[in-house]
Amino acid sequence: MNTLNIQETISYLLAQVCKAHRNVANSALNSLDLHVGQEMVLLQLSQEDGLTQSQLAERMCVEAPTLTRMLQRMERDLVIRRLPDREDARISRVYLTQKALELQPAIEQCWSNLEAQTLAGLTAEERMLLRRLLMQVRTNLT
């Protein structure tokens, strides 16, 4: 009988890599009083402040309830503020606060450090190949 050794699959390795990456990111972001995922909200809003919650959820590829919980925590921590849309009060728009703007350089430094740690020991060619392969895997799964 041919049985699959799950621990030797690429999928298993990918899951381990994702978990390790998330743990390192979480550790770095905790020093800024942020949780993994919140920096992505701030990144999206730094590119276009005032997005609706549904626009944010779509851009981040997360479900609306997941984002809502995250935004509630971020609003409580004074990192974002939610205001009703001027034309449709049923729609909430999300804005960066001054506190969030002040966090931007530190968040960028966290990600720069994470990128360096993640890719340490890889040549420029290997990095490009890894990027291409991961993009293909993402396409396969979405």
Number of strands: 3
Low-confidence stretches: none
Total number of domains: 1
Please trace the helix and strand order, writing H or E for each element.
Answer: HHEHHEEHH
Helix segment count? 6
Structural class: mainly alpha
Could you describe the largest sheet, including whether it forms a barrel? Answer: 3 strands, antiparallel
The rounded distance between the terminal residues' Cα atoms is 32 Å
Radius of gyration from the CA trace?
Answer: 18 Å
**Overall outline:** globular
What does this structure look like?
This protein is mainly alpha-helical and 142 residues long. It has one domain (9-110): Arc Repressor Mutant, subunit A (Orthogonal Bundle). Helix content is 65%, strand content 8%. It has helices spanning 10-30, 38-47, 53-60, 64-76, 98-119, 124-141, and strands spanning 51-52, 80-84, 92-96. It has a 3-stranded antiparallel beta sheet with strand order 1-3-2. A hairpin with a 7-residue loop joins strand 2 (80-84) and strand 3. It is globular and about 60 Å long.
Topology:
Layout: H1 10-30, H2 38-47, E1 51-52, H3 53-60, H4 64-76, E2 80-84, E3 92-96, H5 98-119, H6 124-141
Antiparallel strand pairs: 1-3, 2-3
Helix pairs in contact: 1-5, 2-5
